[in-house]
Design brief:
By secondary structure, this protein is an all-alpha fold. It contains five helices and no strands. Keywords: Receptor.
Length: 124
């Protein structure tokens, strides 16, 4: 049986993190730090091109023709989505999480919506 490393001195009694740092709690919802974390979290998700496109269209409110094609690729769309979320955050018309959760619902991405709710809106 292999050891996971020395016990972490910061771990609560009876709990070891196997030599790793303790899990970092997410910042409180509504803070700028939380909004940055949401953008980073979404930017690093493994989302298909079609789902990214639906999310981007839900955020922009355009149901028409997409500005990017499959040829341009998923990475370009992820970068554009990240930029779009950053612009929404700076606009401050409404909280980023509110707008993003509505867009995820419109884009029919319930799993991602649930992940964001659990990760960033869970009761502490």
């Amino acid at each position: 049986m292999g050891s996971r490393g020395p016990p972490n001195p910061l771990a609560p009694p009876g709990e070891s993190w196997g030599g790793r740092a303790p899990p970092r709690p997410n910042p409180p919802a509504g803070t700028e730090e939380c909004e940055h974390a949401v953008i980073d979290f979404l930017a690093f998700q493994d989302i298909s091109f079609k789902k990214l496109l639906r999310l981007q269209q839900a955020l922009t409110g355009s149901g028409g023709q997409s500005p990017l094609t499959l040829r341009e690729g998923r990475v370009a769309l992820q970068l554009k989505l990240r930029q779009q979320l950053t612009e929404l955050r700076k606009a401050r018309a409404e909280p980023l999480l509110t707008r993003l959760l509505r867009a995820l619902r419109e884009a029919r991405l319930p799993g991602l919506e649930r992940n964001i709710r659990e990760r960033f809106l869970r009761v502490r």
